[in-house]
C-alpha cells in the first residue's frame, strides 16, 4: 500500500518535473505547486523562523526573469547563487523528504563553490538522465546524478567531494574510514588488498569508503561487519589520527579510529588475507604510502592500551 502510494507520488513528481522544468528553462508560463520560503536574503531567513506554505501559482514573471538571467549571464555573483538556489528549491519542492534533505544539503554546499550557470546546466543534464531511467532506478539516479553533478560524487560505493584547487583544477576528495583494531596481546589487525584492487598486495587498516548519508562511525561499523564479520558499537570507535594524501586523480582523507572492543570472531569475509601483527611486524609490512605516517600513532595507542591493562592487573 505504502509502496503503491510512494510510487504514485514518485511518478507524479517526475511527470510534474519533466513537464515543468523545460517550460521554466524556455521561460514559458507554467502552473506549479511549490513550497515558498519567506524572506529573500539569507540574513532575513536566519533571523526569522522559516514559514512555509504550499501554494499553487503560475510561474511568476520573477521566476521567468530569474531563469533567463541564469541562461544569459555566466558571471558568478551572490544574486546568481540565490537565483539558482531558489530555482532548485522550487524544482525539488514537492519531492519526497529524503531527497529534499539531500538536495538542500547539496544546494548549501554548492553555494560556496559552484558557478550557478554551471549548476543550472547540470540540472538540465540531470533531467535527461532521469528521463532515461526505469522506474526502479529513478530514485537512486536522482541522488547519484545530483551528487555527480557537482560537489558530491558517489563512486562505486563511496562519496567524493569535488572541489577546485587554486588553479581551477578539479580535485576530488574521497573520505575513507579505517580502523586500528587492537587485541589484548597488543596486536593490530591488518588486511591485505586483493590483486584486483588499487594498491594490490599492500597491507592496510580495514575500512572503506563512506557512503552517502553515513557518518564516519556508521560507515566503519558497517565495513567491519562486512569485511571482518564482527559487530562493533559505534561508541567503541575512538578517533585516533587521520591520513591525508593524494591518490591518482583524487585526494584521500582517511580518519583512522582505534577499536579495542567488538563482538564476534574476526575473519576475512571478502576473500582478503588478514593478520594480527605486533608493532615490529606491522613496520615490516608494505602499506599504502598514505598509511605509513599513521603507524607511530598506532604504536602510541598500543603502548597506552598495554599500560591500562597493567594498571588494571596491579
Ligand atoms: N580501507 C583502507 N583503504 C585505504 C587505506 N589506505 C589507503 O590509501 N586506502 C585507500 C585504498 C582505496 O583507494 C580506498 C579505500 O577504498 P575501498 O577499501 O573501498 O577499496 P576499493 O578497492 O573499492 O578502492 P579502489 O580500488 O576503487 O581505490 O582508500 C587503508 O589503510 N585502509
Written description of the protein model:
The chain has 314 residues and is α+β, with helices and mostly antiparallel strands. The chain folds into 2 domains: 15-150, no CATH class; 170-313, Alpha-Beta Complex (Nucleoside Triphosphate Pyrophosphohydrolase), CATH 3.90.79.10. Helices cover 46% and strands 22% of the residues. The chain has 10 helices and 11 strands. The chain has helices spanning 2-26, 42-47, 61-72, 78-91, 97-113, 116-132, 135-149, 216-228, 279-284, 295-313; strands at residues 31-37, 52-58, 152-154, 159-164, 170-181, 188-192, 203-204, 207-209, 238-247, 250-259, 274-277. Strands 3, 4, 5, 8, 9 and 10 form a 6-stranded mixed sheet that branches. Strands 7-6-11 form a 3-stranded antiparallel sheet. A hairpin with a 4-residue loop joins strand 3 (152-154) and strand 4 (159-164). It is globular. It binds 8-OXO-2'-deoxyguanosine-5'-triphosphate. 8-OXO-2'-deoxyguanosine-5'-triphosphate binds next to strand 5, strand 8 and strand 10. Residues 172-300 form the Nudix hydrolase domain. One of its GO terms (molecular function) is 8-oxo-GDP phosphatase activity. InterPro entries: La_HTH, MutT-like, Nudix_hydrolase, NUDIX_hydrolase-like_dom_sf, NUDIX_hydrolase_CS, NUDIX_hydrolase_dom, WH-like_DNA-bd_sf, WH_DNA-bd_sf. Its EC number is 3.6.1.55.
Amino acid at each position: 500500500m505504502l509502496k503503491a502510494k510512494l510510487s504514485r507520488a514518485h511518478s507524479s513528481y517526475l511527470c510534474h518535473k519533466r513537464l515543468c522544468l523545460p517550460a521554466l528553462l524556455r521561460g514559458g508560463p507554467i502552473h506549479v505547486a511549490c513550497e515558498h520560503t519567506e524572506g529573500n536574503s539569507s540574513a532575513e531567513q536566519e533571523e526569522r523562523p522559516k514559514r512555509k506554505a504550499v501554494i499553487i501559482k503560475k510561474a511568476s514573471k520573477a521566476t521567468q526573469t530569474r531563469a533567463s538571467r541564469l541562461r544569459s549571464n555566466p558571471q558568478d555573483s551572490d544574486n546568481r547563487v540565490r537565483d539558482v538556489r531558489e530555482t532548485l528549491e522550487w524544482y525539488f519542492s514537492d519531492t519526497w523528504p529524503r531527497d529534499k534533505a539531500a538536495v538542500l544539503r547539496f544546494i548549501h554546499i554548492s553555494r560556496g563553490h559552484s558557478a550557478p550557470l554551471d549548476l543550472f546546466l547540470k540540472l538540465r543534464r540531470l533531467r535527461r538522465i532521469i528521463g532515461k531511467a526505469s522506474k526502479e532506478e529513478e530514485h537512486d539516479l536522482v541522488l547519484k546524478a545530483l551528487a555527480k553533478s557537482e560537489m558530491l560524487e558517489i563512486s562505486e560505493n563511496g562519496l567524493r567531494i569535488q572541489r577546485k584547487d587554486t588553479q581551477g583544477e578539479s580535485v576530488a576528495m574521497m573520505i575513507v574510514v579505517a580502523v586500528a583494531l587492537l587485541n589484548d596481546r597488543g596486536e593490530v589487525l591488518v588486511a591485505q588488498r586483493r590483486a584486483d584492487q588499487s594498491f594490490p598486495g599492500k597491507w592496510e587498516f580495514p575500512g572503506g569508503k563512506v557512503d552517502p548519508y553515513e557518518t564516519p562511525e556508521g560507515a566503519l561499523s558497517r565495513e567491519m561487519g562486512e569485511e571482518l564479520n564482527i559487530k562493533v558499537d559505534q561508541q567503541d570507535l575512538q578517533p585516533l589520527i587521520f591520513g591525508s594524501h593524494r591518490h591518482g586523480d583524487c585526494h584521500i582523507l582517511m580518519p583512522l579510529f582505534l577499536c579495542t572492543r567488538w563482538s564476534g570472531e574476526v575473519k576475512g569475509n571478502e576473500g582478503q588475507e588478514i593478520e594480527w601483527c605486533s608493532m615490529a611486524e606491522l613496520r615490516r609490512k608494505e602499506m599504502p604510502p598514505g598509511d605509513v605516517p599513521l603507524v607511530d600513532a598506532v604504536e602510541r595507542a598500543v603502548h597506552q592500551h598495554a599500560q591500562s591493562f597493567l594498571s588494571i592487573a596491579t
